[in-house]
Amino acid sequence: MAVDYTVIVVYLAGMLAMGWWGMRRARSKSDFLVAGRRLGPAMYSGTMAAIVLGGASTIGGVGLGYQYGLSGAWMVFTIGLGLLALSVFFSARIARLKVYTVSEMLDLRYGGRAGVISGLVMWAYTLMLAVTSTIAYATIFDVLFDMNRTVAIILGGSIVVAYSTLGGMWSITLTDMVQFVVKTIGVLLLLLPIAVVRAGGFSEMKAKLPTTYFDPLGIGGETIFTYVLIYTFGMLIGQDIWQRVFTARSDKTAKWGGTVAGTYCLAYALAGAVIGTAAKVLFPKLDSPDDAFATIVKQELPVGVRGLVLAAALAAVMSTSSGALIACATVANNDIWSRLRGAVRRSEGAHDEVKGNRVFILLMGVAVIGTAIALNNVVEALTVAYNLLVGGLLVPILGGLLWKRGTVQGALASVSVGGLAVIALMASYGILANEPVYYGLLASLVAYVVVSLVTKPTDEAVLAAWRERLAGRGAPAAEEPAAVGA
User: Fold this and answer.
1) In terms of C-beta density within 10 A (0-12 exposed, 13-18 middle, 19 or more buried), how is residue 420 classed?
2) How far is the C-alpha of 19 from the C-alpha of 261, rounded, in Å?
3) CA gap 40, 51 in Å, rounded
4) What does each C-alpha distance from 64 to 9, 49, 275, 404 come to in angstroms?
5) Helices in 210-302 by DSSP H: which ranges?
6) Using CA atoms, how far apart are residues 55 and 274, in angstroms rounded to an integer?
7) Which one-letter DSSP state was computed for residue 237?
8) FRET label pair with 485: which of 53, 118, 195, 249, CA 20 to 30 Å apart?
9) For residue 247, what pLDDT is reported?
10) Whether the predicted pLDDT of 481 surpasses 60
11) Rounded to 10 degrees, what is the CA torsion of 419, 425, 83, 241?
12) Does residue 336 contact residue 124 with C-beta atoms inside 8 Å?
């Protein structure tokens, strides 16, 4: 394993080095939180694909393939569909808003203080997303070094917190680009063909497995529908995803770069399912489907290649973890803390804003690592996060973008009713049940429509300012994109 260890150590050292280099570019709030809004198509596509394809998409996607066959691709497939929908229908308008958070968008659209409550819901979502990614370090480092779970979480989490704190979005963008390349080589170009060949090819796989493993709908229609509700719609409104949209150099970059990333996700989904299906042929009696990825890597790949593929898994986890961490810190600082203490003092300069956001990344990073150590069930934590996000925020966000009659009172009612309904229903039906997101989303929609219709329409001046921002004409001068390409 010495060669494999060397590959991993060099990779981790490179992540820290890029964090240090990114620190030199993060000179303003815009640089630190959204990479100066300067990313071109290639870098934007790579980093967007990196953040949405995390440990759940890689280790979990292979596990679903092991359990259900090709239909196990649906979870990651719906993530790709959500990214495509966001890119084609909404990303251009989102990019032109020149904001930093989803809650700022809600305040602009509704002309009220909808941001505080929505900020709390978004903070809970991004925190749990970061926690689930951080827990995944334990699985990877256990395969590599037979390391204690707590030590593995602290080691992996500390590296992500370090480079994210140093350079903010610039560091995360640089590391994500490397992680995208490593994932592409490790999973698509190496593990996929090797796994299929070791399993005897598709003909041998079909001969040894039930026909349901090759049924595209074998996982079940209700499960697919739930994935669409949670992941496809979740991609449309998550702070971690929107914050990447804000990094685009132009609205065209956001649209077409995101479309490329979404298409890549579809291919990645199928690859994970095929690898899992091959693992079922090779190791038919694993204790858990989630062990499929680590087992096939450890048992079937040659020295050196094994290290690169494990680095790919680590890259997948780190990209999602760092993206969720900066999103969590951005929401905590800009949407919650700054509002609780009052308006940000005008005397604060760019250096102070960078320092403040850097402190919040460090604080949120420590909180994420501590929570990850305390929790064991990744699936439950991720389900709670997405249920809260979709049940509480989907309706007011999409309603604000699509329905002129929506009001701030309707938005607040929607967030409150939907969020509380999801929490109550998870307590009643169970965290992993489908009913909480179904009924929570319905309650949120009813509250939004009814309250909006019985309250005074949004002031025309607010809507006019909103339309100006959507057209890209109302952003402050300081927020205009720099001429430097990236």
Assistant:
1) middle
2) 24
3) 17
4) 29, 20, 10, 41
5) 221-227, 233-237, 239-245, 251-282, 292-300
6) 17
7) H
8) 53
9) 92
10) no
11) 40
12) no
CB 249 within 8 A of CB 484: no
Instruction: Give SS3 for 210.
Output: coil
**For 289, how many CA atoms within 13 A lie in the half-sphere containing its CB?**
19
- pLDDT band (50, 70, 90) for residue 352: low
pLDDT digits (tens, 9 = 90+) for 157-180: 898 898 888 888 888 888 888 889
Query: What does each C-alpha distance from 161 to 52, 323, 378 come to in angstroms?
Result: 19, 11, 20
If one compares 274 and 357, the residue with the highest pLDDT of the two is 274
Quick one: 145 exposed, middle or buried, by C-beta within 10 A (0-12, 13-18, 19+)? middle
Rounded Cα gap, residues 186 and 65, in angstroms: 18
- Are the beta carbons of 118 and 277 closer than 8 angstroms? no
Q: Which amino acid is at 398?
A: L
The DSSP letter of residue 431 is: T
* Neighbour count for residue 197 (Cβ, 10 Å): 11
Task: Please report the sign of the dihedral spanned by the C-alpha atoms of residue 50, residue 51, residue 52, residue 57.
Answer: positive
| Helix intervals (H) in 331-459 | 338-340, 350-374, 378-402, 408-429, 435-454
- The set of residues, in sequence order, having a beta carbon less than 8 Å from that of 454 and lying 6+ positions away, is none
Nearest to 54, CA basis, from 301, 224, 234: 234
Token pair of 112 as six digits: 């009220």
Nearest by Cα to 49 from 451, 398, 323 = 323
pLDDT for the residue numbered 312: 81
Taking CA 254 as the corner, what is the angle to CA 253 and CA 256, rounded to the nearest 5 degrees?
A: 65
Distance CA 60, CA 65 (A): 9
pLDDT in tens, 3-31: 777 877 887 788 888 778 877 777 788 88
**Two tokens at 179?**
């992680």
Q: What residue type is 465 in one-letter code?
A: A
Does residue 364 register a pLDDT over 80?
yes
Whole-angstrom distance, CA of residue 61 vs CA of residue 192: 13
Query: How far is residue 53's CA from residue 73's CA, in Å, rounded to a whole number?
Result: 13
Contacts of residue 303, defined as CB under 8 A and 6 or more positions apart, other chains included, come to: 1, 3, 4
Residue-level length of the chain: 486
